[in-house]
Design brief:
Blueprint (H helix, E strand, L loop, with lengths): L2 E7 L7 E4 L4 E5 L6 H13 L18 E8 L4 E7 L3 E6 L2 E2 L2 H7 L2 E4 L11 H15 L1 H21 L6 H30 L2 H5 L9 E5 L9 H14 L1 H7 L11 E5 L2 E2 H4 L2 H23 L4 E5 L7 H9 L7 E5 L13 E7 L2 E4 L1
Parallel strand pairs: 3-13, 3-14, 8-12, 12-13
Antiparallel strand pairs: 1-2, 1-4, 4-5, 5-6, 6-7, 9-10, 10-11, 14-15
Helix pairs in contact: 3-4, 4-5, 5-7
Length: about 350
């Protein structure tokens, strides 16, 4: 997927702009606070319906305006328009016809990499779960559906656990449903990790000694070879063992929403023994491996947004990252300063300069 033109009206601090994009690499320069991230957020918001900063969609509208509009023209001759008005009125259209957000997610698949992602290997388990959920959700619509169903049932259970009077029969029904969905989710995650680990060592070797082998694993005893019956029995036992704990805490503490994953470098837990450089290289390698899997699945690439990643990498890793970016996907990459590392870029690219909400295309 590639974009040919982008038009923005009243989006955050940006003036009305209309640009023609480069099919490969778009470098977006500008000082902090100039609107670089806002420009990328407009693409991400149109595709996913999510903000990059904050949760209220009203914040996307310029303070002096009552609406914002994002218009994207693709290389496939589709035109996507997202219109958002104060009061949370929102319209989505593809080629002048009403559309759903799911239509846009599949039409303009977009993956974003922000500086905070570099801390995923060292951060809490939730961050690694979120990373896998985002990646698997784009690779498999079925995974996204199962995860959504699981979260819906989990919400019902947590509501039930907070009630003064427990409906034991309903709790049993919910647990059975959560186990069935949870087993499917865990197996899909295990299979995905297996595919990632077939690629991670080679990609990690691009940034460091080739003899160092990176992998990402379930912390629990779950693998692609696990049968549904084994996992179902395991999860049911865990629910029974933690029944009193869940009742006391009034929340579910067992299931894939609590799964833990760990990076290993040469078999050692990277979170405990890895340097900052190794930890950051691990997540970069994971994202590059994911992109390869996406292309293998769909025979096309998602749009890739890289927001100020180089600011968190040392010069050596930053240059290696730029040298090993895949050439096929369309990339939007922001940076606060014009780094000498960009001089080593090969191939076609365009430069956008943003300052004070205004944009200059070179």
């Amino acid at each position: 997927m590639k974009l040919e033109k982008i038009k923005l009206t009243n989006f955050r601090n940006l003036d009305e702009i209309e640009i023609k994009t480069n099919p490969r690499l778009n470098l977006i320069f500008g000082p902090n606070g100039s609107g670089k991230t806002n420009f990328c957020e407009a693409i991400y918001f149109a595709s996913t319906g999510n903000n990059l900063k904050g949760r209220r969609q009203r914040e996307l509208i310029n303070w002096d305006s009552e609406y914002t509009l994002v218009k994207l023209a693709t290389a496939n001759d589709d035109v996507v328009v997202v219109y958002l008005e104060t009061g949370d009125r929102k319209e989505l259209k593809v080629n002048s016809k009403n559309a759903r957000q799911s239509d846009l997610r599949s039409l303009i698949p977009t993956h974003i990499f922000v500086p905070g992602d570099l801390y995923i290997p060292k951060g809490p388990p939730q961050q690694r779960r979120d990373m896998l959920n985002r990646q698997l959700g784009l690779l498999s619509a079925d995974y996204g559906k199962r995860l959504s169903e699981y979260q819906s049932e989990l919400k019902k259970k947590n509501t039930l656990l907070k009630k003064d009077k427990m409906n034991e029969e309903f709790l049993s029904v919910l647990n059975e449903r959560l186990v069935d969905l949870g087993v499917e989710i865990s197996l899909k995650r295990a299979n995905y990790l297996q595919r990632l680990n077939e690629r991670l060592p080679e990609i990690y070797g691009l940034f460091g000694p080739p003899e160092e082998k990176l992998s990402l694993h379930y912390a629990e005893d779950i693998s692609p070879e696990s049968s549904k019956e084994e996992l179902k029995a395991l999860l049911m036992n865990q629910l029974e063992e933690n029944r009193d704990r869940e009742m006391k805490q009034e929340t579910s503490v067992v299931g894939p929403h609590r799964d833990k994953f760990e990076y290993r470098l040469n078999g050692k837990n990277l979170r405990k023994f890895g340097s900052q450089g190794e930890l950051r290289t691990a997540v970069i390698s994971t994202y590059l491996a994911y992109l390869n899997l996406y292309e293998e699945n769909f025979e096309e690439w998602p749009i890739l947004i890289l927001d100020d990643i180089l600011s968190e990498l040392d010069r050596g890793r930053g240059e290696s990252f730029l040298e090993n970016l895949p050439e096929a996907p369309q990339i939007f990459m922001t940076t606060a300063t014009r780094d000498s590392a960009f001089k080593k870029l090969s191939g076609e690219f365009s430069v956008l300069r943003i300052n004070g909400g205004k944009i200059l295309q070179k």
